[in-house]
Amino acid sequence: MRVITLTTDFGATDWFVGTMKGVILGINTQVQIVDVTHEISAGDIRAGAFALAASYKFFPRRTIHVVVVDPGVGSQRGAIAVQTANYFFVGPDNGVLSFALSCEKIKAVRQITNERLILQPMSNTFHGRDLFAPVAAHLSKGWPIQKAGPATKGFVKIDWPEPGRSSRSITGEIVYIDRFGNAITNIDREALFAPTESPCEVLVKHTRLCQLGSFYQAAPARKPIAIFGSSGFLEIALNGGSAAKKLDLKIGDAVTLQRKSLQNSSSS
Asked: Distance between CA atoms of 249 and 268, rounded to whole angstroms?
């Protein structure tokens, strides 16, 4: 049975997600639909891109990932279907797929123009229902991606901020805040310098905040700690609370991971 995932900013209050599922099941009843999240902040393309990139690899090969974070719905922005070596992706061509696609070997990128795959008449405000859901459903039935429309050479990319690095520190920024108030940065575990040379500490907005730990409760209650979370990226957390609220953290805030000096290390 094929798997289709849904990642949107639709929330759980309205009928939007359920309607998309109804369209999919109306085309293919032999499919498993998985909700990744529908709580992306409204129109936050970068957050949608991060959520997809953090989750898509944990699904079976040939899973079809549908992402609808689409503030440009009804405009001239494109709609694309992408096949990679392991997965399919369907969504608006606004960069929301780009973080995941940058990690994949791309086999085909198609503009979605085939009216046979689109519900008619197509709404100018709900392409999740009328365009992306039916295309994903047809792909799940084995329709070749070539039927979606003409090939295109590229797709819109969101720039991923690369951390700066020196011999003693790595400086990045907060790129995502989850529902627990953990502030996730763009500093990944692979960029970490040899941690055994000396202990590490974390500065946020150029102010010394906390040390690097390995789990949330390594810090005293209601105190901050930095860990490499399940996404593989450094995050600022608070034991028993929201780091984002208590520390007034925002997306784009600078975060530096640095080796502690021998003087600081010996006095701590």
From this structure: 25
DSSP 111: E
In a domain, 122, yes or no: yes
Question: β-pairing, 31-37 with 79-84?
Answer: unpaired
Look at the pTM and tell me if it is higher than 0.85: yes
> What is the amino acid identity at position 66?
V
| Distance of alpha carbon 52 from alpha carbon 252, whole angstroms | 19
The model's pLDDT over 255-267, given as tens digits with 9 standing for 90+, comes to 998 877 644 444 4
The pLDDT tens digits for 158-216 are: 988 889 988 788 999 999 999 999 999 999 877 665 544 557 888 888 788 878 888 99
Contact 109, 154 (CB under 8 A): yes
Q: State which residues form the domain around 57.
A: 2-148
Shared-domain flag, residues 24 and 106: yes
Does residue 158 lie in a domain region?
no
141 and 179 share one domain? no
The CA distance from 233 to 227, in Å, is 8
Total domains, the chain: 2
Residue 119 resides in a domain: yes
